[in-house]
Amino acid sequence: MAAPLHTRAAGLDRTLFLVVPAALFMLLVFVYPFLYGLMLSFTPTEGGALANYIKFFTTDNLWPTIGTTLKLAMPATLINVGLAIPIAYQMRRKSPYQKWVTTILVVPITLGTVLIAEGMLTYFGPRGWLSQTLQFFHLYEGPIRLTHNYWGVLISLIISGFPFVFLLILSYITGIDPVLARAAATLGADPWQQFKQIYWPLLIPGIAMAFCLAFVQAFSVFPSAVLLGAPQGPTRVISIAAYEAAFEQYDYSLASAIAMLMGFVQLIIVAFVLGMRRVFYRGPVTGGKG
Amino acid sequence: MNTNLLARAARGLIWGVMTLFLANIFLMIAAVTTSSIARRWLGTFLPDGYTFQWYLDAWKEFQLGAVLWVTAEVVVAVVGLSLLIGVPAAYALARRDFIGKRWLMLLFLLPLMVPPITYGIPLATVFYKLHLGGTIYGVILSNMVPALPFVILVMTPFIEQIDPNLESAARVFGASTRKMFWHVLTPLLAPGILAAALLVLVRTIAMFELTFLTAGPDSQTLVVALYYAVFAAGVRAPQSIDAMAMVYMVITLIWLLIALQFVNPTQLVSRVKEQPQGA
Lengths: 290, 279
Prior knowledge:
The complex is a heterodimer.
Chain A: H1 20-41, H2 51-58, H3 64-90, H4 96-123, H5 129-136, H6 150-174, H7 178-186, H8 191-219, H9 223-227, H10 238-247, H11 252-280
Chain B: H1 2-36, H2 53-61, H3 64-95, H4 101-113, H5 116-129, H6 136-160, H7 164-172, H8 177-206, H9 209-214, H10 222-231, H11 238-262, H12 265-274
Helix pairs in contact in B: 1-11, 2-11, 3-6, 3-8, 4-6, 6-8, 6-12, 7-8, 8-11, 10-11
């Protein structure tokens, strides 16, 4: 990759104008609404500046949504990352099936949360194929309940989130020079030791990044929590609360406050994970190349 | 000997888990497919008979024609505008170092790190104030918020790979910036632009949250129309919802397979990853 060109021409560099439309767009359509929302959240329809936040933390169907969302997003992200690491490690070498398996694993990305919900309602439902097969072989009697509850939402988060995490971690693993592992193998390290001593330390920054991005996706779960879960009960996640405030009660001020809290909780988790990364950090992922 | 056995067991377990995962997903898709062509399917293993009637029903009931047209308009506008604004910005970011570049990169990274609902709700509020909410323009603008940074993140490392001497040569021969862009850079960038366009296209078709928050009744894209169909299930035959879901899946799948011809998914992510480090 070529290093950025340093042209210190006299006066203004006209190339820089090329970045202006994009920067302007982001300021107008991303930053301004965000700040507007922040201001709006402090100007409630009634009460003082903090009334919305006080309302959120004192209303019984609002504040528990943070816990509900975390209870779904955390396990889903941990499972996705935990499954993706060993599978991606298996796939680290170029092989005829590497391309095939990645292609097949990418397919669920196209399904989108809504289609996954519809598919799960059909397939995992009380009269779906899974239920019928299990009953046919007498593996499990009685109806299995995997939709309209916590488990349905969790499963859909795994289906929609896993391919993304897998691709991300695979690209980090294939970015590590295999020469390092070969050197370790010459010294008698078996695959497990290679993973523990070579790959794992180099992978930590990548895993932290993948964890954060996957968590962002899982934390904003919305359609599957409505369609597959129990949106009034155990899967009333924070985005449902925000949506209801905005588009059912038309209290945009409260909705903005909930959205801001959502971003805040999200940011704490991301900051924590990236902070942990620093504790474990030992060197750049691409170290040892060239 | 013992570790060898363990390693083999671990590998078997990994393949087993992966096969189980994929098998269930494909059975799930198969279930939707079967249901969409089933005449009547109530609690039996396979339906009584098969028909394509539900596709016709879905077409009429859900105004699929209109929905598909809106989806195409939104996707074309989002892809076109994001490229038009994003590629020049990526060029400036790849070729120049300037004060505040880190902040600008942060500005372009942030929309990918914040959940769409978080900024979607304030955005929708602003749009409804400006009478943009519920219109197709609002849908296009809101979908560009994640699309534009995505284009910039994909294109910046791509442009960095291109030898700046080619541009200098064009300059020596008296090409203006505009001419240099069209006759030298665009042909060289074509593969990268194509990749970015296809990925933005797939993402925009699948983007639910932002479209859902900003769309009105006649500016719904396919994925939002599908959500409302599933949400209001019970009123309509499940088969015709499944037919609609199939239409959605086939469209995204075709575009994804086309995209995969031009993009190696693993390389793409690592390019995106290396970028912020300025590698």
